[in-house]
Design goal:
479 residues; alpha+beta; Phosphorylase Kinase, domain 1; Transferase(Phosphotransferase), domain 1; six-stranded antiparallel β-sheet; 22 strands
C-alpha cells in the first residue's frame, strides 16, 4: 500500500506499473536517501513454487549484469511474506509510452534507441542470459534519452536448465514472440534478435508486423507468415535498414544475424548512413498555387490569346522575309538532352563482363536494378575473395538511357555496402566505355558526380568487392 515501509527501509510513494506477476512501486530508500524502483511479487504467488523461483531468478540474473543499458539491481529480499527486488529508478517513460505519445519515430532516433537496447542484450548474452521478453514496455527511456532494458523475469540461462519451464510452454509477449518460442522450442540469443527486430519495426511504423486478436492467432502468424514490407509501410527508410529488419525477422534462427553484436554492427552502419544528408538530393517542393479569382482567370485567358496571336504574326513576318524557322539546319547546334534538371528513366539491360570474363554475370537479373523495387537486385557472381579472386579487373551493369544524354549524377542503392565502383559511358551496350566519374566506395545510397560526357549507355563498373564474395545493386537512378 502507498505509505507502507518494506523491510524497514523502503517507503512506498507511488505505483509505477502492474504486471502479471508483480507490481512496481516508486519508493524512497531511507538508508541511501535516494529514489528506487521496488518490484514486489503478487501475494497470491508467494506460495507458488514456480513463480517464486522465477522471481528470484530475475534478481540473480540481473545482479550479474552491470551495463549502462540495463537497469541495475540494488537489493533483493523478503519481508512480511513479500518477496521484492530493488532496482535503480529511471525517471522517464517506456518505449511503448513514447510510441503512443509521439507515433513512429524518426529513423535516426529509432536506430539510436535500438542500438542501446542491442548493447544491453549483447552484454546479457555474453553472460549467458537470454531475455526472452524483449518489447517496448521493457525498455525504459530516461530523461537524458538513454535506453535501459528491464524485466528479466522470464530470462533463461544459456548454460543451466533451471527446471522451471516445461517443454512446449510458451513464454513471452505474443506480439514480440519469436517463432521458436511460439512452437515451444529452445531459445537462443537469436530469440532476442527476432524480438528486437519486431520492436524496431514498430518504432519505425507505429505498428507490430503481426497483430492479432489473441495469443494463438498472433503466434501462428509469427510461425507461418512472412513479415510485411517495411518499405511499403515507411518509404523513407533506407534500403539497408529494411534489409536488416527483414533478416532479424527470419523464421529460422540460423538465417538471422549470428549474434546480437552482429545485428548491432549492421544497425550502426545503417545509423551512419541515416545521419548523413546529401544536399544534392534535397527535394524542394514548390509552394501550392493560390486559387485565382474569376476576373484573374479571364485576364489570364485573354493574355494567352494575345500571346498566341502575336506569335503567329511574328512567324508570318519571318516567313515573308525568307527566314524558314522549321527545318532550318544552318548554324544550328543540336545538344543532347541533359539528365541534370529532370527525371530520366534508366533501364538496366545486361551485365558487362569483358575478357578475361566469360561475358555473363547474372545477365537476366540486370533489369531488377531499375525496377523501382529496392528489395530486388542484380548480383555479381561469387568469387570467394575480394577483388574477384584475382581473376579479372571488374564487372559492370549496363544502363540504357534510350538516347544520347548528358547525365550529371547517378545514384546507386545497395544492401551490400562497402564495394568500390566507377561510372563509365559509351555508345554501345557492348562497349568500349570510358570513365565518366571518379572511383567511390558505395554505401547504402551513393551519388556519383559525373563529368558530363554525352552517351546513351552508362556502366556501373565494380572494381573491388570489399569484404563481400558478391555484391548487390538494388537500384540505380539518374540524378
Amino acid at each position: 500500500m502507498i505509505g507502507d515501509v518494506i523491510a524497514g527501509r523502503y517507503d512506498i510513494d507511488d505505483v509505477v506499473g502492474t504486471g502479471g506477476m508483480s507490481t512496481v512501486y516508486k519508493a524512497r530508500d531511507r538508508l541511501l536517501e535516494r529514489t528506487v524502483a521496488l518490484k514486489v511479487l503478487h501475494s497470491h504467488y508467494e506460495h507458488d513454487t514456480e513463480h517464486a523461483q522465477r522471481f528470484r531468478n530475475e534478481a540473480r540474473a540481473v545482479a550479474q549484469l552491470s551495463h549502462p543499458n540495463i537497469v541495475t539491481v540494488i537489493d533483493r529480499g523478503e519481508a512480511d511474506g513479500h518477496q521484492f527486488i530493488v532496482f535503480e529508478y529511471v525517471e522517464g517513460e517506456n518505449l511503448k509510452q513514447l510510441l503512443v505519445g509521439r507515433g513512429p519515430l524518426p529513423v535516426q532516433r529509432a536506430l539510436e534507441l535500438t542500438l542501446q537496447v542491442a548493447g544491453g542484450l549483447a552484454f546479457a548474452h555474453a553472460h549467458g542470459i537470454v531475455h526472452r521478453d524483449v518489447k517496448p514496455q521493457n525498455v525504459l527511456v530516461a530523461a537524458d534519452g538513454s535506453a535501459k532494458v528491464t524485466d528479466f523475469g522470464i530470462a533463461r540461462s544459456l548454460d543451466v536448465e533451471l527446471g522451471i519451464t516445461q517443454t512446449g510452454t510458451v513464454l513471452g509477449t505474443s506480439s514480440y514472440l519469436s517463432p521458436e518460442q511460439a512452437s515451444g522450442k529452445p531459445v537462443t540469443p537469436a530469440t532476442d534478435v527476432y524480438s528486437l527486430g519486431v520492436v524496431l519495426f514498430e518504432l519505425l511504423t507505429g505498428n507490430v508486423p503481426f497483430p492479432g486478436e489473441n495469443l494463438v492467432a498472433v503466434a501462428m502468424r509469427h510461425l507461418n507468415e512472412a513479415p510485411p514490407s517495411l518499405l511499403e509501410r515507411r518509404p523513407d527508410v533506407p534500403v539497408r535498414l529494411a534489409a536488416a529488419v527483414k533478416r532479424a525477422l527470419a523464421k529460422s534462427p540460423a538465417e538471422r544475424f549470428p549474434s546480437m553484436d552482429a545485428f548491432a554492427a549492421e544497425l550502426r552502419g545503417c545509423l551512419d548512413g541515416a545521419a548523413g544528408v546529401d544536399p544534392e538530393r534535397t527535394l524542394i517542393v514548390p509552394a501550392a498555387a493560390r486559387p485565382r479569382s474569376r476576373s484573374q482567370r479571364r485576364r489570364r485567358r485573354g493574355g494567352r490569346l494575345a500571346a498566341v496571336l502575336g506569335l503567329l504574326g511574328l512567324l508570318a513576318a519571318l516567313a515573308a522575309a525568307g527566314v524558314f524557322v522549321f527545318g532550318a539546319t544552318t548554324g544550328t547546334s543540336h545538344a543532347p538532352p541533359s539528365g541534370g534538371g529532370g527525371v530520366l528513366a534508366l533501364h538496366a539491360v545486361t551485365a558487362y563482363d569483358p575478357p578475361p570474363g566469360d561475358g555473363h554475370e547474372h545477365n537476366g537479373e540486370a533489369p531488377r536494378a531499375t525496377d523501382g523495387n529496392p528489395l530486388t537486385y542484380w548480383e555479381t557472381e561469387t568469387y570467394g575473395t575480394p577483388e574477384f579472386g584475382g581473376l579479372k579487373n571488374g564487372v559492370g551493369l549496363v544502363l540504357d538511357a534510350g538516347s544520347a544524354v548528358v547525365l550529371r549524377r547517378l545514384t546507386v542503392s545497395t544492401d551490400t555496402p562497402g564495394y568500390t565502383a566507377i561510372v563509365r559511358v559509351g555508345d554501345s551496350e557492348s562497349g568500349p566505355f570510358s570513365d565518366d566519374s571518379s572511383q567511390q566506395t558505395v554505401s547504402a545510397e551513393t551519388t556519383f558526380a559525373l563529368d558530363g560526357h554525352s552517351a546513351r549507355y552508362y556502366v556501373l563498373w565494380i572494381t573491388d568487392l570489399g569484404m563481400h564474395d558478391s555484391v548487390h545493386v538494388n537500384e540505380v537512378k539518374a540524378g
